[in-house]
């Protein structure tokens, strides 16, 4: 009886917390999809979506995508897809890659790379001929600025990763026991 009361109180506390601080926008077979989940997806979208992130129609489409994703996930669970050896291997590999990416982000600070307006403008001026429309008319810097910044940041991240990754791995090899058994 005590276990049942404890379980029910935990469910009630969890429900109150979810409802009190995080509005439930939809439910899929009883599983809530919350406002914070929607906001997290919107926040994670590339900058090119900034102009529509607050649009109710766009948010509705994103919510619908979350619903569809949850439906598919639940169906995969119901069918026991995760028990498949190939799927288990893919889950393990994805988890490892996520952890590796988080480790590299923590130690190499790759996402902290920023490109200034001045750098973007300099790139635009140097490569002006590349920024023309189908009629050969010059596209303004403001129209392509976001694209240039994203491209340059990605390029800087790749350079930083390539330069720092080998040093970091060598450091780890010195600090750990690595045996090659051929």
UniProtKB/TrEMBL annotation:
Q: What is its EC number?
A: 5.2.1.8
> According to its UniProt record, which reaction does this protein catalyse?
[protein]-peptidylproline (omega=180) = [protein]-peptidylproline (omega=0)
Q: Which domain of life is it from?
A: Bacteria
Q: Which SUPFAM superfamilies match?
A: Triger factor/SurA peptide-binding domain-like
Recall the GO molecular function terms of this protein's record: peptidyl-prolyl cis-trans isomerase activity
Keyword match Signal? yes
Gene3D superfamilies per the UniProt record, alphabetical: 1.10.8.1040, 6.10.140.970
InterPro entries reported for this sequence: PrsA_foldase (IPR050245), Trigger_fact/SurA_dom_sf (IPR027304)
Q: Which UniProt keywords apply?
A: Isomerase, Rotamase, Signal
Q: What is this protein identified as?
A: peptidylprolyl isomerase
- Origin species, per record, is Desulfurobacterium thermolithotrophum (strain DSM 11699 / BSA)
Q: What is the lineage of its organism?
A: Bacteria, Pseudomonadati, Aquificota, Aquificia, Desulfurobacteriales
